[in-house]
Amino acid sequence: MRPDDWYLSEDENWYLTEDVDDFLARAGGFLRSRPGLHVMPLTWTARLRARGAAAFGVEPPLFGLLEQAGEVRAAFYRLPSRALVPTPLTPEQADGLAAHLAALGHSLPAVSADDGTAALFAKAWQRHTGATPTLRDTRLGLYRLGTLTPPDPHPAGRSRLLGEQDLDQAIHWCGEFARATGEDVSIDAGSWAGTRYADKTYTLWETPDGTPVSVAGMNPVIGGQVQVDVVHTPAHLRGHGYAGAVTAAVSRAALAAGAKEVVLFTDLANPTSNALYQRLGYRLLTHWAGYDFTHARKTE
Question: What is the pLDDT of residue 3?
Fold first, then answer.
């Protein structure tokens, strides 16, 4: 498939391209219409435009959108060798997308989306390809900030933006965060620039003596929303309110930067973090799930 080619499914009007600029020219308004729910395609398309597709794999990414009556109704993106990530889909849309991708010979390792969409597409992909979907153990919640409520009690100390002198500390803590969340990525000084962690703004929480005890990151303002991504306190420093304080600080910074919506993901199996974000004013927007696909081997 050439980067500037668009493919039309006669049944569902699904268009596919490898060109992120073409995709955003057609689907950008749709993605910005629901910035909270569309946080993943908004974030990753911006990241790909800034760094180039080659930074994330030797193969080009794939983008798609569903047009009906001249309006975009759904969209998706997929990075090389990674999960398909669609926006919310109806049963008919999920089936049409699965049928179209299967007919074109695409092989998908997984799907990641809001709970309902992920389940619909997993079943549709199984119908059209025979692949076996397996629900991932980690279930996420996508939260959106309502009215920010500072933590009470508030720990002693202050927040400050991360500077160049703190980079080693940030790399170390982001590595700890990635391992704790099961992310298969190597984070060190050599690989840092090529990870998703490098394009964030980080805020540290310091104790009164200047010791950094917690960190939170946020992505740039994209489509009117900011994703708070990475909230980490080393295990031996937890239980003092540092995570709440630094999350409140970075959430306040996101609003000050012009975000109309501030969102974050959290592991639904962690009652401590879920309760913390709710106390700060975050409310559950949707559940998020992933299914891995196992394809049966062909026999002669």
Answer: 38
| pLDDT for position 151 | 93
Do 134 and 220 belong to one domain?
Answer: no
Does 70 reside within a domain?
yes
Residues 154 and 115 in one domain: no
- Residue 65 backbone class (left: φ over 0; alpha: ψ -120 to 50; beta: rest): beta
Q: Where are the alpha helices (DSSP H) in 104-236?
A: 115-129, 167-180
The whole-number mean pLDDT for each consecutive block of 10 residues of the chain, a chain of 300 residues, reads 42 85 96 95 92 75 93 95 96 96 95 98 98 94 97 94 85 86 79 84 94 94 94 92 96 95 95 95 97 73
User: What is the chain's alpha carbon radius of gyration, rounded to the nearest angstrom?
Assistant: 20
d(CA 261, CA 229): 14
In a domain, 173, yes or no: yes
- Both 133 and 159 in one domain: the answer is no
Report yes or no on 156 lying in a domain: yes
Of 256, 43, 284, 289, nearest to 145 (Cα)? 284
In a domain, 95, yes or no: yes
CA triple 223-20-99, angle to 5 deg: 105
pTM over 0.85: yes
**Residue from 278, 273, 270, 282 nearest 137 by CA:** 270
User: Do residue 84 and residue 187 come from a single domain?
Assistant: no
Q: Which residue from 94, 100, 175 is spatially nearest to 133, judged by alpha carbons?
A: 94
